[in-house]
Write a structure and sequence with these properties.
Blueprint: H1 3-19, E1 23-32, H2 48-66, E2 87-91, H3 95-108, E3 118-119, E4 125-126, H4 129-132, E5 138-140, H5 160-167, H6 173-181, H7 183-187, H8 190-193, H9 207-220, H10 234-252, H11 262-280, E6 287-292, H12 294-303, H13 306-309, E7 322-329, E8 342-349, E9 361-363, E10 372-374, H14 375-383, H15 390-397, H16 405-411, H17 413-421, H18 432-458, H19 465-477
Parallel strand pairs: 1-6, 2-5, 2-6
Antiparallel strand pairs: 1-7, 3-4, 7-8, 8-9, 8-10
Helix pairs in contact: 2-3, 9-10, 11-12
Family: Belongs to the histidine acid phosphatase family.
InterPro entries: His_Pase_clade-2 (IPR000560), His_PPase_superfam (IPR029033), Histidine_acid_phosphatase (IPR050645)
GO molecular function: phosphatase activity
Length: about 500
């Protein structure tokens, strides 16, 4: 082969590589909080271990999305100093989750050192505190406030129908069967947890809080009580984890009544809105991070059909777990491509993500066979369950008070306002004046009917006024007083 031919082939290969080069346009991360104290002993607190897990995971995402050397670098995102127009962070009002968010964001955009030094007009220099610590504000999300102090996170969703749907699990045959078959296992744990749970509480109904207490103890409690023994073997802990996972998954998602997965529905709506904003803004908004709890993971796993593809998605995700939706394209141009050239890739990692560990792994959504779903298909599939507005949430949850009071009024607003403007009574379409006339006529008809009935019974009859006058005259002429009786 000639030298020119070899150069042509190499050039063609390079061109093919460029043609297939992927561009990451934006991403949405949902991040679980780090290690914490047990739910059975509120108030829960984020531990130093948990803060470190979040910081390391934030550093991992810095290296993935922020670093200019990464093949997953989000196109156009600021690499050193955070641009708050490009990055949005949110969390519910919860000490564990919000503090986790602070640790994560510190790793995502670490201190910038001397870059934060400013020179004032008088020539003096000012160094930013904490070596140029970068502050990224977090907005509040409504669902999940105080969730880490609650045994079941649905209690913090405020969604009436979701609570009912989830609690229906406790009357299912599946629950009753496990409640009976696992009784001996939970009762055997009494020597380990009798300071927290009574004997009557040691059953499958409290599967999560029992496992959580022991899980936390095995990380932090060095007393002999929680040393490996015949009561607390790895096998027992694995069995307790499987039972806790089944318990929580069935409360977080029900295929026949999806409102129990309201947390995942709401997240899906937020992901749709954020990624759409990235596209419609031409890439001005690039990275969204939301911090939350395990139930939201499980809800979304069920809704997206991930649990049927991999059993990993039926289990409680570990502390500092991450899932993300990445907007990607193979378009070689610059700027935001057409939506027909944009796809969404879902990635997940169970546990703390650190450099050198198992990286985020891509999984197919909605039972599809491909890892990258065209934007239009992603939108269509997500909209089948996503909750994208307060009104939609209120209607799905059946809530009519609180934030839903105005929504409830608005739902019937059209008919009530039109009725008021025309002077109508609600729902009849009849003016008040017409209704009054008809009412009077009905009353008069009833009275006339009663009069006729009385005449028939008592043999009375109506006579002309002139005839009545003649009777009166005749009666006055009579000498018999009894003849003066007349109809009153």
């Amino acid at each position: 082969m000639s030298v020119l031919r070899i150069l042509f082939v190499l050039a063609s290969l390079s061109l093919a590589d460029l043609t297939n080069a992927e561009r990451v346009l934006g991403a949405y991360i949902f991040q679980r909080h780090g290690d914490r104290t047990a739910k059975a002993w509120p108030p829960t607190k984020l531990t130093s271990l948990g803060y470190g897990q979040e910081y390391m995971t934030g550093t991992f995402f810095h290296d993935r999305y922020i670093s200019s050397n990464s093949s997953y670098h989000i196109e156009g995102i600021s690499t050193d100093t955070v641009n708050l127009a490009q990055v949005t962070a949110s969390a519910p009002q919860d000490d564990v989750i919000e503090t986790s968010g602070e640790g994560f964001l510190q790793g995502l955009y670490p201190p910038i050192g001397s870059v934060a030094t400013e020179t004032l007009r008088n020539g003096s220099t000012v160094q930013s505190p904490m070596n140029g610590y970068q502050l990224i504000p977090m907005s509040d999300v409504q669902s999940g406030s105080g969730s880490e102090d609650n045994a079941w996170l649905q209690s913090t969703s405020s969604c009436n129908n979701a609570k009912v749907s989830s609690n229906n699990y406790f009357s299912s045959n599946s629950f009753k069967s496990l409640l009976s078959s696992t009784k001996e296992l939970y009762q055997s744990l009494e020597p380990l947890v009798n300071g927290t749970f009574s004997s009557t509480e040691l059953n499958y109904k409290n599967a999560y809080t029992i496992w959580d207490l022991l899980h936390v103890a095995l990380i932090h409690n060095s007393t002999t009580t929680f040393q490996p023994s015949s009561l607390l073997t790895d096998q027992v802990m694995q069995e307790l984890f499987i039972l806790a996972s089944e318990h929580e998954f069935n409360l977080a998602y029900n295929s026949s009544d999806q409102i129990s997965a309201v947390a995942g529905m709401t997240l899906a709506g937020e992901v749709l809105a954020a990624l759409n904003e990235t596209i419609t803004s031409g890439g001005k908004s690039k990275l969204n991070i939301q911090f939350g709890a395990y139930a939201t993971f499980l809800s979304y796993f069920g809704l997206a059909g991930l649990h049927t593809a991999d059993e990993t998605f039926s289990g409680i995700p570990d502390y500092a777990s991450s899932m993300a939706w990445e907007l990607v394209t193979n378009d070689t141009g610059t700027g935001m491509p057409s939506t027909s050239d944009i796809s969404v890739r879902f990635v997940f990692h169970n546990g703390t993500s650190v450099e050198g560990s198992t990286h985020l792994q891509a999984y197919p959504l909605f039972g599809q066979s491909t890892l990258e779903l065209p934007w239009a298909q992603f939108v269509d599939k997500s909209k089948k369950f996503a909750v994208s507005s307060q009104q939609q949430w209120c209607q799905a949850c059946g809530n009519t008070n609180g934030i839903c009071a105005s929504t409830s009024d608005d739902n019937g607003g059209d008919s009530s306002s039109s009725s008021s403007s025309s002077g109508s009574s609600s729902g009849t379409g009849m003016s008040l004046g017409v209704a009054g006339v008809i009412g009077a006529m009905v009353t008069l008809g009833v009275l006339v009917g009663l009069l006729v009935l009385s005449m028939f019974i008592f043999g009375l009859r109506l006579v002309p006024k002139s005839a009545l006058a003649s009777i009166h005259r005749a009666s006055d002429a009579s000498t018999t007083p009894a003849m003066k009786t007349t109809l009153a």
